[in-house]
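$ fold --in a.seq
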Amino acid sequence: MMVRDFQSVIGRETREQILKSAGHLPDLLIACVGGGSNAMGLFHAFRDDPGVDFLGVEAGGEGIASGKHAARFADPNVARIGVLHGTKSFVMQTSDGQILETHSISAGLDYPSVGPEHAWLRDQERAGYTYATDEEALEAFQMLSELEGIIPALESSHAVAEAIKRAPLMRREQIIIINLSGRGDKDLQTVIQALGLDED
């Protein structure tokens, strides 16, 4: 609750700005989810608006089947109720309760648990959750950089990747809001290495 309330300025400002620019609420909010603070900050201001769908995007890493990911909701074989860092939620763990190693190209999503309010939203069917792989996030990172001149954080690139999938399935007049929770300057070295580009 404390983290959500600190981050809630994101949702309040988003709500105010979209009503001013479009005249109505969005149809879909998309945000990346590691621990989930940025997503909760966005979602919270729209919690009582049933016409606004919430979609959280976890780190699919190298794919769910590979085991090298941080997608708690996508892999029921390893995500179980547990307590990590003082919080009861879904935790990636062995059958003996040992915390599993996670993987994501994005350090900010490379976390074995998820905020308990996200688990509650999912149980209430108020929010949906999916994942994007490292490869999809890298593609989204490049696309947004090239087309809009916005360099997103690799965390946010997971949300952009899902928006790229969802937009063609929606009507032209529908509105998607993607939460860009950070700048990608910090991730350029990681992207350069992952794409095998010359640093010069």
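$ fold --in b.seq
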Amino acid sequence: MALRLVIIGAGPAGMRAAEVLRQKAPEAEITLIGDEPHPPYDRPPLSKGFITEGLAPARLWLKPESFYAEQRIRLKLGAPALAIDRARKAVELAGGERVPYDKLLLATGCRGRTLPDAPAGAPVHYLRSLADAAAIRAALRPGLELVLIGGGFIGLEIAASATKLGAKVTVLEMAPRLMSRGVPAPVSDFARALHERHGVEFELEARLLGVARGADGRLLVETRRRGYPADLVIAGIGAAPNTALAEAAGLAVEDGIRVDAQGRTSDPDIFAAGDATRHDNPLLDRAIRVESWQVALNQAAVVAAAMLGAGDAYAELPWLWTDQYDCNIQMLGLFEPGLDMIERRDPAGGGFTLLGLDAEGRIAAAITVNSGRDMAVLRRLVALRAPLPRERLADPTQKLSDLLRAARSA
């Protein structure tokens, strides 16, 4: 009987795993199960081009719909998985169907955190899915007063998109600065100034009291400092990994489905990949959970191979990016306390690069702001794990490519 490979989660990680499994196991039966009615699609454009440019949903598909039939990947869309029967090795779907497996991959992703006290029926929106993005796009219009709760990557990307469409935007952020969980203070300050130049207003260290509907039918978002009338409220207050299936099945969970560097869970026949996982990272020598396109695709490829017996580990530093207006910010690694910070300003433009050196003088983390060309070189420098001369790194006239050549020849 053919090997039965089942994937729960029809997002980027699930798609990539199915693709690799078919390449490496031509005779296997592959089933891809998804909650949404759509084939796997690209999520980064949801907060940007999908809203501002009116992209058709099919433009977001990661593969044409014909791909799955051609590759004999059975799609079960709009079919939420309700339970995993580990004893009988089967997945129970809404509607009662049971899908047997020999090896199972959980690529269940994340869900957006919701406001606990939004009034019933109030148009408080969240952005995790294509349907969410379509609802936001339909609601936005010139002159609309929008209150965004959350000044992280998603909130600021939506702020930029809404501003482009003529909305008046206010962002409420609970932390003392923007994007505080992912970037150092200089990048937070840059982002705030960028948005303020486009008319966005901020309340930092905001303490949200609630969202109420006024007598005029409009919403009122109240903080301890003041109230903000709004036609539309969007909350981008982080995401939580979808671990309910794993927990109910008795798998180890630790702010994510706990897996090793090859995606193995505490059950030898069940693997996990993507945003929902807390995975061992050999480069950092600890377990991390990262919500990233890079993890979704690259980790999924490694895990798919491991399901078939391969021995490679997923070992990459986290790489994330955000586009806001005409600004591109890329992040490599994790800026943790204790790193020696170096700032490199582009003498010819407005971009800059931040480097974080460890105690041995090696680049452990980097951020490029409108200097994306640096990132390709920085990825190679980080991979070398070689000490570098601080004075040369701090000198913006010293090309990073020259430093790379010198480090390789050392």
